[in-house]
Amino acid sequence: MTARRGQWVQIHSILLKAGERAPSAPSDTANVPLELRVRGFLQDEVASIGQVVRIRTAAGRTLEGTLEIIEPRHVHDFGDYIPELSQAGDELTAWLAGGDENEYEL
Amino acid sequence: MSMSYESVMSRKTEIMRASIGIEYDKYELEGIGFDYEGLMSDTVYHMEEITAIQRETGVGNTPLVELKNITRLVREISEPGKGARIFLKDEAANPSGSFKDRRASISVARAKELGYRGVIAATSGNYGAAVASQAMKRGLKCIVIQECYDSTGTGQPEILEKARACEAYGAEVAQLTVGPELFYYFLILLEETGYFNASLYTPFAIAGIESLGFEIAQQSRRVIGKDPDFVLATHAGGGNLTGTARGLIKAGADKTGVIGVSVDLSGLHMASDRDFNRKSFTTGHTGFGIPFAVFPDRSDVPRNAARPLRYMDRYLLVKQGEVFYVTEMLARLEGLQRGPAGNTSLTAAIALAKELPKDSTIVVQETEYTGAGKAPSAQLTFARKNGVKVIRGDPLTDDVPGKVIAIPENPSQIMYTELGLDRLRESYIRELIKRQILPSERDLDYLAQELRLTTDETARLIKEVSR
């Protein structure tokens, strides 16, 4: 996949390598690098994923990093159906609908 | 200029000075203390000015809603005569969906007044969206730095949602992997851009919340006919509780008890790459709540204006599963989809209301917007993907942070556990000693104010802890 100049992309870079991390980092964190991801508009004419590129961010900074995603989409969602939660909700609704007669025991 | 961790951190003082416009040195006292009230009164605006600034961008003046169905349910499971009235300050009605707009509004207005071209905030929470929203309204550039991913590149859904919100307002979002170096990159960006440090912990950010406490007092008098008996604030970095309490005091509601509430995440290390995605709450939890209460000056400014132990009457903890249950309850019984993080204090309110007489009142002082990534279903799905079990069960016995989330089987299982303030006070002294900040005779007045003790009690405590 290639991106063209002006396309919205995400770049990735390493800020601190494992071993360069803050002294207060716990060992599992100290053993991996500190990584940065930023999105912005591609400044190179054409680039492929994995290439080092420059972007211009929303705040107007120019940044260099490895092209990771072209036109990244927001992937977070509402998740799966959670039976335990749904059941709890239905119990509460039944209590409310039961009103004073309290037909549903909580 | 070197960008190594040590080198950037050594430039901290000068970077900070250029980025806030406050001469913190002026307020340093001899010894370990500083003149907190002096700092607050010199740098912040009066309540009328705060309100005026906030009205310019549509911040504040949010509804106080009585949760009548939840109160009815609480009374049904309480002993006769018990079951306090619960009210909710619907802060989700602020422009970016949380009380954080109050903090951001004053910081950003100050940045504009001082002539900065942009603002930067280091936050994975709602504050980022709030700063972004306020910055755009005032025509400033904005960069938000988040701690977002673990080393596999997996992002916490709630933090991803906040990144989306920041970008929607036109901010740049810089996303880091887990670690204590958020502050390191924050300093690099402040130095590079010359932008204003829109820290959560400046006097401006705290003054912005004072209007929340002030409004609660005014609305309670109008709606209930008296000051609330208790105001419950979700506690993380301490600003929410500090600002709310100061606002209540400014409104003359000095009999109202201020209670901090956090989600109990004990056992999970906040800076751990492994633990990062095993927690379902990104803020309002003990991982921030305890460290910031016992050593506030760990923040991203020379002196933290959020000093929760000065204002906290009690500190209550609740479990993750309880907060999800209560989030569901708020939707099902009150028709309000909010949170979940903002519902932490509502959870404790339900548990507390069971013990209080019917004529007493509790105000839960915030809600936050919900949506993709934030909704309980999103968080519980993510928890399961990360190996956390989700069950129906008694949270008190079954909930284990990072391992099991127990959704209560019935509302009677909603309970709080109390963390005694004396334990926090001891830790406060211990934290100072750990950092070679050794308290002496001349510091007693300052420490007594910090810990809300008499100077004698403070001296005794120092002696005990040093032993």
UniProtKB/TrEMBL annotation, chain A:
This is 2-amino-4-ketopentanoate thiolase. Pfam families: OrtA (PF22010). InterPro entries: OrtA. The lineage of its organism: Bacteria, Thermotogati, Thermotogota, Thermotogae, Kosmotogales. It comes from Mesotoga infera.
UniProtKB/TrEMBL annotation, chain B:
Gene3D superfamilies: 3.40.50.1100. One of its GO terms (biological process) is alpha-amino acid metabolic process. InterPro entries: AKP_thiolase_beta, Cys_Synth/Cystath_Beta-Synth, TrpB-like_PALP, TrpB-like_PALP_sf. Residues 57-364 form the Tryptophan synthase beta chain-like PALP domain. PANTHER family: CYSTATHIONINE BETA-SYNTHASE. This is Pyridoxal-5'-phosphate-dependent protein beta subunit. Its cofactor is pyridoxal 5'-phosphate. Keywords: Pyridoxal phosphate. It holds the Pfam family PALP. The keyword Lipid metabolism does not apply. It comes from Mesotoga infera. It comes from the Bacteria.
